[in-house]
Design brief:
By secondary structure, the chain is α+β, with helices and mostly antiparallel strands. It has seven helices and 14 strands. The chain has one domain (2-205). It is globular, with a radius of gyration of 22 Å.
Length: 284
């Protein structure tokens, strides 16, 4: 059911959600930009609606909310192992529709198997996703360099809730019970609403067929010259899912913990195996 609410009512709803959930959203992160004394928009925990950035694109993806950068898998001693408690019991993530399509790719990796990934499932199954509408006043049709329509990722279908700016207020379409109860308690006005699929200004054409010979193209030499193997391209991408494992031993002890940490085939050493063999020797 969709509701039309004022800005102050939306703020009350976000604060009410934050009492029950960990609430993540794109927000301004001061002083964390690429250069000194610059800001950046990234995902973080919020407490009020004023912290949500609607009019700028996030430079980072939502995925660390359900796939932490560093995640303890278990603690160990000489005699036993113990699994940690989940990072949170319940969470809500405000995200763009393109990120929802990225979430589907993560689900294909971690949930599609008969035995879904235990650690991913712990967080994923207890998380609700609220799509931030790109048909709203803040970024009608997406931002200038968005091209989700060309990728077929502009269709809005699966979400737990949807929020769009309209005038000085918001439209909120809820599909999960806790949020609907909060909206009804606020006595918000019910309206008929269906989100519109996104239409971009920028169009991208894809080739009909890509041959393996493209790997030998000189076009990659430019990337080889300027890539510093930091892995940032993978870490900001909502569809990248690789990690490596680390055993951390506590000081002067045989006890410790095993962690899985984000990693990438774009990071130096990731493809190294026994015998000194590396499957990716050049950055390009």
């Amino acid at each position: 059911m969709a509701y039309k609410i004022k800005a102050e009512e939306f703020d009350k709803i976000v604060k009410e959600l934050s009492n029950q959930y960990h609430v993540y959203a794109p927000c301004l992160q001061e002083g964390r930009g690429t250069f000194s004394d610059t800001d950046i928009v990234g995902y973080g925990l919020i407490q009020s609606a004023d912290e949500i950035v609607f009019d700028k694109k996030s430079m980072y993806s939502f995925k660390e909310a359900i796939l932490p950068i560093s995640q303890t898998m278990f603690y160990f001693t000489e005699d036993e192992m113990k699994e940690p408690k989940p990072a949170y019991e319940k969470a809500v993530v405000f995200l763009r529709n393109c990120d929802m399509h990225g979430l589907k790719r993560l689900d294909d990796i971690y949930r599609a198997d008969k035995k879904p990934d235990f650690y991913y499932e712990q967080l994923r199954s207890n998380t609700k996703f609220i799509v931030i509408g790109c048909d709203s006043l803040s970024c009608a049709g997406g931002f200038d360099n968005c091209f989700c329509e060309s990728m077929g990722a502009n269709v809005i279908a699966d979400y737990d809730a949807y929020v769009a700016q309209e005038g000085g207020g918001y439209i909120l379409d809820s599909r999960f019970d806790e949020l609907t109860e909060i909206l009804k308690a606020q006595k918000a006005d019910e309206i008929a609403f269906a989100p519109k699929d996104i239409t971009n200004k920028l169009k991208v054409e894809l080739p009909d067929d890509i041959l393996c010979d493209i790997a030998k193209s000189k076009i990659w030499d430019e990337y080889d010259a300027r890539c510093v193997i930091c892995g940032r391209c993978n870490f900001v991408c909502p569809t990248c899912s690789c990690f490596t494992t680390q055993d951390i031993f506590y000081e002067n002890s045989s006890a410790g913990e095993r962690r899985r940490v984000w990693a990438s085939c774009q990071i130096d050493g990731y493809t190294d195996i026994a015998g000194g063999i590396a499957f990716r020797k050049s950055k390009s």
